[in-house]
Structures are given as C-alpha cells and as structure tokens.
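TA notes, week 10

Several of you asked for a full example with nothing omitted. So below is the full record: structure tokens for the whole chain, then the designed sequence directly under it. When grading your own attempts, check the secondary structure regions first.
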C-alpha cells in the first residue's frame, strides 16, 4: 500500500478554520447549532469542529453522533460493523443540524443518516460537512461544506488522521 499526503497538519488546520468560518456564516444563531458526527471518523471530526466553533463564538456548541448503519440499503455489499450508539445531546426540533463525515463517496451513508435523523425529530435545517469529497456519487447528494475535493479511483481510499485517535494529523490518499 502507498500512502500519499493530501493535507499536512498545517493544511488540515487551515482547512478546519475555513470550514468553521463557513458554518458560522450560514447559521443565524450559534445556539441553535448541533453537530452530529457519523461514525467513525465523523464523530471525532465533529468534536474538533465543535471545540473550534465554541472558541470562535464564545459559547459551547452542541455535538453528538448519529449512527446510520441500520438504515443503510447496501449492507450486503459493504458489510456491517458494530453499531455505535447514537448520542443526541439535545432535541433536534428547530435546530440547525450539521451532519459531519470524514469522506463522502457514493452518498449512501448520508442518505441513511438522513433517514435515521427523521426517527429522532424534525430539525429546522440539515446541512452536510465533509473533509474530503472523493467523487463516485450514486445518489444526488452533495456536501454544503467541503474541505477538499479529491478525485479518486474506486480502489483508492482516503484516510483522515486526527491526533486524538492516530497520534498524527493529516489527510492521506491510500493506494493498494
């Protein structure tokens, strides 16, 4: 396997700051904001973004997780993993929800997350933030906030590394 650096630690930091600015520009009230990370890396990314948003707006930003595994329509193809608990720190009603994931690929995970979200309530608005858009969409789903667009082959993958999990930070293209 070959691992190529797409974003260094410094570039990842700048990208995170840009994403934070974009989220704040599109939200009327930071108090209504709720970041929901999609397991696995989306949860850690949502945590990092919530901390940065709180620093910027001077108040805590609600952050949790939403596991859409049981709502997927392609489980037989992608396989299953242990379902992570959904953690909603507040009601969804009237909230500006930002779904956070590390990579968007076919769009099926986001479709499942939207369906799972409906079982928990009706937010005022739902947006999607991803660190990397690698293309190959099978559904008409596009992120509202995107760190980087990286065209890939289907055999390649993208790896987001965060200090809290990996002991390093960066975004990498992994080739077989």
């Amino acid at each position: 396997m070959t691992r190529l650096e797409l974003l260094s630690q410094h570039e990842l930091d700048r990208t995170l700051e840009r994403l934070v600015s974009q989220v704040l520009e599109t939200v009327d009230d930071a108090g209504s904001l709720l970041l929901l990370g999609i397991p696995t890396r989306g949860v850690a990314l949502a945590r990092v973004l919530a901390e940065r948003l709180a620093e910027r707006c001077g108040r805590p930003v609600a952050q949790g997780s939403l596991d859409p595994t049981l709502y997927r329509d392609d489980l037989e193809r992608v396989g299953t993993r242990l379902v992570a608990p959904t953690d909603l720190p507040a009601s969804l009603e009237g909230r500006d929800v930002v779904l956070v994931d590390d990579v968007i690929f076919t769009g099926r995970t986001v479709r499942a997350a939207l369906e799972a979200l409906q079982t928990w309530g009706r937010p005022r608005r739902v947006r999607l933030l991803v660190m990397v858009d690698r293309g190959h969409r099978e559904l008409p789903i596009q992120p509202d906030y995107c760190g980087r667009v990286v065209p890939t082959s289907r055999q390649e993958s993208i790896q987001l590394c965060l200090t809290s999990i990996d002991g390093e930070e960066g975004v990498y293209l992994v080739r077989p």
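The domain at 32-153 is CATH 3.40.50.2020 (Rossmann fold). Use that as a sanity check on your answer.
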